[in-house]
Amino acid sequence: MTVIESTTELNVPVEKVYTFLADLSNHKQLMPENIYNWSATEDEASFTIQNMAKLAIKISNRIENKELTAIPTEKPPFDVELKWTVADNGKGGTIAKHIISADLNMMMKMLAAGPLQKLADHQTKALSAAIG
């Protein structure tokens, strides 16, 4: 399992960050330009990654003000889990971490690990811009 992480610190309370992330329709604001055909509800989202694949995800687990996990609803090119964790930074703000876990063989890891890291980094940076 390949695990890709990106972390950001926000001067916003955990509850506000969690509430934003808990609604998948808000995640469009976190996506890079190569994502299109975006469609989402609070619990599900589908989109196309340019030159790659169409992906549909749903929230599979929620722990209020702590973590959210999303998994594919249709068979993806590889098994993947998208998780956000939020924790108080001790100063009234939030440490948000985006964790992408993907079951990649050696060939897929060489092709996909870089773009997945770029995606995770883009999303944490966009989260800061959207609500930080």
UniProtKB/TrEMBL annotation:
InterPro entries found in the cross-reference section: START-like_dom_sf
Domain of life: Bacteria
Identification of the protein by name: SRPBCC family protein
Organism, as annotated: Pedobacter psychroterrae
